[in-house]
Amino acid sequence: MPNRARVGTLLLALFCGVAGCDAITGRLIDQGVKQALRGNRADLLDDGKLNVVLCGTGSPLAAAGRASACTAVLAGGHFFLVDVGPASVHNLGLWRMPLERLAGVLLTHFHSDHIGDLGETVTQSWIAGRKAPLPVYGPPGVDRVVAGFQEAYALDRGYRVAHHDAANMPPEAGTLSARILALPSLDEAAVVFEQDGLRVTAFRVDHTPVSPAYGYRFDFGGRSVVVSGDTKPTENLVRQSKGASILVAEALAVHIVERVSKGISEGGNARLGRMSHDILEYHTSPAQAVEMARDAGVEALVLTHLVPAPQNRVVEWLFLRGTEGLWSGEVILARDGMLISLPPNSTEFTLGNVS
Ligand SMILES: [Zn+2]
Ligand SMILES: [Zn+2]
Question: If you measure from the C-alpha of residue 62 to the centroid of ligand 1, how many angstroms do you get, rounded to a whole number?
Answer without folding.
Answer: 15
